[in-house]
Design goal:
With about 350 residues, the protein is of the alpha/beta class. The protein is about 45% helix and about 15% strand. The strands form two sheets. It has a five-stranded parallel β-sheet with strand order 3-2-1-4-5, sandwiched between helices. Strands 7-8-6-9-10 form a five-stranded parallel β-sheet, with helices on both faces. Strand 1, helix 1 and strand 2 form a beta-alpha-beta unit. The two termini are about 45 Å apart.
Length: about 350
């Protein structure tokens, strides 16, 4: 929170935050410490890969929940303007003239935040021109508006030597310049689905080794073993939540891809198969999205290890996954053949 002796009444930080990195955070932290009220404006037209408006809003909310942030795309801007009974402008393209962007930010301050600002924080030389355009914009509506000050922070990148372009080119190499929750969110997740005895775990380990990354084991199987197969209805939601917690943990250590040996969709299948019902929370968790879905075909010889049902149930599982993924309009690839063949097909799928 800003100190009582803040240097400025109201300040502004603008950025794509694609992704939000430590340099951005230094800028925001500095601005927060010097302003009684701080606005953040973030937009990108077009949006950059893996940095949707929704994701950027979530990152800012997690890292700076106390700051007033306007994370915009055209749909969100139109929605906010409609609530206020005003007409929204078109968000400038990333390649638009600098002054178009500056006047747009002035519009957001005036019409969405209902304020003018005293200072704009940047890490660039262009901040002086930005401050002057904002000054002129505000004075067009209020001749007594203050001169907007430019506060430049770490222009030479001594404190945080990084840029969003560098990170987008090699996420894993520059992961230390990202907060753990931001990095984990950017790691791509592949989930392996399939019936019992279709080689999912073995393939998950092989994929992780080939990609020099982490894999997430199946918690439901571990709990099944620990309780000697006597699972209860409430265990289903616990299994799904724990599986997600594991994914979030291992994603902070993953190299580009995280290999997930099951998902809450599997838990939903077992909840219906074992109890003929599912908790509403589990149904919601089963909608969790993954970047790739690999479905292991039941073309291995079925091996009974004492905990599995039978080959007929395995086929039922495979058919259920195909129906459910199709109904949910989730693209998936079916892996067939030997482990080596599945590994080759899986790696090829991830490279696309």
């Amino acid at each position: 929170m800003p100190a009582n002796n803040s240097l400025f009444s109201s300040g502004l930080v603008v950025g794509k935050f694609s992704p939000l990195h430590r340099g951005h955070e230094l800028l925001i932290q500095t601005a927060r410490s010097e302003c009684q009220r701080l606005l953040i404006i973030s937009y990108s037209v077009p949006e950059l890969p893996q940095c949707s408006r929704k994701r950027r809003a979530e990152w800012l909310n997690k890292r700076f929940p106390d700051i007033e942030a306007y994370v915009l795309d055209q749909a969100e801007l139109d929605r906010l303007a409609k609530l206020l009974g005003i007409v929204a402008p078109t968000i400038p393209d990333n390649n638009a003239q600098d002054d178009d962007h500056r006047r747009f930010c002035g519009w957001v301050c005036q019409h969405l935040a209902s304020c003018t600002i005293d200072v704009v924080f940047t890490s660039e030389d262009y901040g002086d021109g930005f401050a002057q355009v904002l000054t002129n914009y505000f004075r067009d509506f209020s001749p007594t508006a203050k001169q907007v000050t430019h506060r430049c922070v770490d222009k030479n990148r001594f404190d945080v030597p990084i840029s969003g372009t560098q990170i987008r080119k090699n996420l894993y190499q520059y992961r230390d310049f990202l907060a753990s929750e931001v990095y984990a969110d950017l790691v791509k997740k592949v989930v392996l689905l399939g019936g019992e005895s279709t080689g999912k775990t073995t393939l998950a380990q092989a994929l992780a080794k080939a990609l020099n990354t982490q894999w997430v084991s199946e918690y439901g199987r571990e709990l099944w073993d620990a309780k000697q197969g006597k699972l209860e209805f409430d265990d289903m939601l616990h299994i799904a939540n724990t599986q997600i917690e594991r994914e979030d943990h291992f994603a902070t250590e993953a190299n580009g891809w995280l290999i997930c040996d099951t998902s809450p969709l599997t838990t939903l299948l077992y909840s219906h198969a074992m109890f003929d019902r599912a908790a509403p929370e589990l149904i919601d968790l089963a909608c969790r999205q993954y970047d790739r879905v690999l479905l292991c075909a039941p073309d291995f010889e079925f091996i009974q290890d004492g905990t599995r049902r039978d080959d007929a149930f395995r086929q039922y599982q495979h058919d259920w996954y195909e129906r459910e993924l199709t109904k949910r309009q989730i693209p998936f690839s079916v892996l067939e053949g030997s482990l080596e063949e599945r590994l080759i097909t899986g790696l090829s799928t991830l490279s696309q």
